[in-house]
Amino acid sequence: MTPNPLDDPAADPFEIARLAADDVARLTGVEHHDIALTLGSGWGKAAELLGETTATIPAAEVTGFSAPALAGHPGTLRSVVTATGVRVLVIGARTHLYEGHGVRRVVHSVRTAAATGARIMVLTNGAGGIRESWRPGQPVLISDHLNLTAASPLEGASFVDLTDLYSSRLREAARRVDPTLDEGVYCQFRGPQYETPAEVRMARTLGGHIVGMSTALEAIAARQSGMEVLGFSLITNLAAGISPTALSHEEVLEAGRTAEPVISALLARVIGSL
Ligand code: 8IG
Considering only CA atoms, which residue is closest to atom 2 of ligand 1? Predict the structure, then answer.
């Protein structure tokens, strides 16, 4: 298998994202996308409700997405057109930091989305909830984040402003669709282990409300590329120690399955309103 060009330290990740965007244009027949959407666990049904899927392409055929020497499934990218003609690039291929391939690979889909022309990046995930009032199956907006990964997608002296990272304009748009949407601060841990109860208490003390393993690094990269970011977490479980019982992967999957139609419809309505 050909090596991933992102793994060459001398390569420019933005140039590779441009090549990836050329692949997306060629394989989808769509030159320019307006909005990009990364689907996390629990959000998978949203793509169908957004509009008409005009192309589905294996991520492995797009530059930089290929995973050499690893049997993992790289997922798909989809091009969807909404009723009003907005072109949405739906990314069903997320690379996590805990996979160990480095931050460039983690944020490559975001940089590719920007290179296709997308001005808005919608990031969704499944996550643990720290707020005691939250229940599994509840979607919440991300208002800000704590990056606890000790990693950054920025290379060199790139001083990117993150003051309004999770766009207040887009959060207001989401709340016009569903005024009951709560919001909170997302804490990204490296994972893949879930937190200890002490780590969850730490996150709460630091001002965190949501614990996850994906979105903060992607949001930073999106902002660096000039995109506006909207973030949603599906609370699939209460964070460790918040609930009296241990975290069960089955509970997480079940909450996701139950919530999926509801939150997917919500997401489609929000994106349709942007
Ligand atoms: I789903 O409780 C899901 N993803 N870090 N903690 C972290 N990530 C998660 C959790 C959680 N639940």
Answer: 128
